[in-house]
Specification:
Helices cover 54% and strands 0% of the residues. The chain is an all-alpha fold. The protein has one domain.
Length: 94
């Protein structure tokens, strides 16, 4: 087994950590168990409520084919979207 500086430093840090951990006084809390129990109930309940709200809120809207493209006059070196030939109506229907 090599006894390099890194090994000595690691062993020293481990001993220091174990000594500090031995001084800690931790008591078991029953409240932490109750919190975990309620988490198992609250998470599926919240998911079910969210699903029901989403189903009842969904109201389909009528889609019209009236597309208005605003024209803004600015000095640019680019081209207008009216001149590029792309079908921008696909972006409107969501």
């Amino acid at each position: 087994m090599s006894n390099t500086f890194e090994d000595q430093l690691t062993a020293s840090a481990r001993r220091l950590r174990e000594a500090q951990d031995a001084k800690l006084h931790v008591t078991a809390s029953q409240m932490s168990h109750r919190r975990q129990y309620w988490g198992w109930i609250a998470t599926p309940a919240a998911a079910a409520v969210g699903l029901l709200i989403g189903l009842f809120i969904h109201r389909p809207t009528e889609q019209t084919n009236d597309y208005v493209v605003p024209v803004v006059a600015v000095e640019t070196t680019g081209h207008s979207i009216l001149d590029d030939g792309a079908d921008y109506s696909l972006f409107v229907a969501l």
